[in-house]
């Protein structure tokens, strides 16, 4: 161990030192966490033709953009390929009529978990983009589309064990109905 970060600072790939609480470091950590979660998706869903591993490589490219602010490793050509995958897989599914509950099976659950980490990562990347004009916004756009695709995959894997569990709206309580009519 280097103990270099014991003071609450970390060093970026360009040699600059920044606080570990900086939005850039938070974004790097979130993308790293997402990449680790995709490792579970890759193990549980091996029939995806290497899709998850390809996404992991692209997440490392995003990490490179975060770690070296003046360089761009991520290429936006992955955006269209990701969108095409999502559209192709979504065609296998019936239209979404209601929110679905995560937890149908292990593969679907890990896809949902990765989706939520992806959304958090995307939010942090957009916050960074607001602060740093050098940031490649294609990275945030990629995560936006990735969260959609992970949701589609979660639905596909959930349906392998039967129907998806849909949210059942609770009817408003009488006191709620009284408030809305006044």
Mean pLDDT: 87
Which regions have little confidence, pLDDT < 50, spanning 5+ residues? none
User: What is the strand arrangement across the widest sheet?
Assistant: 1-2
Q: Which structural class do you get from the secondary structure elements?
A: mainly alpha
**Strand count:** 2
Q: Choose one word for the global shape.
A: globular
Order of SSEs: EEHHHHHH
In helices, the fraction of residues equals: 55-70%
Strand content: under 5%
Rg (CA only): 20 Å
**Biggest sheet features:** 2 strands, antiparallel
Account of the protein in words:
The protein has a two-stranded antiparallel sheet with strand order 1-2. It starts with 8 loop residues before the first strand and ends with a helix. A hairpin with a 5-residue loop joins β1 and β2. α1 (23-44) runs antiparallel to α2. It is mostly helical. The mean pLDDT is 87. The chain has six helices and two strands; from the N terminus they run ββαααααα.
Write the layout of secondary structure elements.
Blueprint: E1 9-11, E2 17-19, H1 23-44, H2 51-67, H3 77-90, H4 106-131, H5 138-159, H6 174-181
Antiparallel strand pairs: 1-2
What can be said about this structure in brief?
The protein has 182 residues and is mainly alpha-helical.
Please name the defining characteristics of this protein.
60% helix; 6 helices; mainly alpha; two-stranded antiparallel ribbon; 3% strand; single chain; 182 residues
């Amino acid at each position: 161990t280097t103990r270099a970060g014991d003071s609450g600072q970390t060093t970026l790939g360009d040699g600059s030192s920044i606080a570990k609480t900086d939005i850039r470091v938070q974004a790097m950590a979130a993308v790293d966490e997402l990449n680790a979660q995709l490792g579970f998706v890759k193990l549980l869903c091996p029939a995806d033709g290497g899709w998850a591993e390809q996404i992991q490589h692209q997440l490392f490219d995003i990490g490179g953009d975060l770690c070296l602010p003046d360089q761009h490793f991520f290429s936006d050509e992955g955006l269209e390929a990701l969108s095409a995958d999502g559209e192709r897989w979504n065609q296998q599914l019936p239209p979404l009529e209601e929110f679905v509950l995560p937890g149908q099976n292990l593969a679907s659950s890990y896809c949902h978990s990765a989706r939520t980490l992806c959304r958090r990562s995307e939010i942090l990347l957009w916050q960074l983009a607001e602060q740093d004009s050098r940031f490649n916004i294609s990275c945030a756009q990629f995560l936006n589309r990735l969260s959609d695709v992970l949701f589609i995959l979660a639905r596909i894997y959930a349906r392998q064990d039967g129907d998806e569990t849909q949210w059942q709206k609770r009817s408003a309580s009488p006191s709620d109905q009284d408030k809305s009519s006044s």
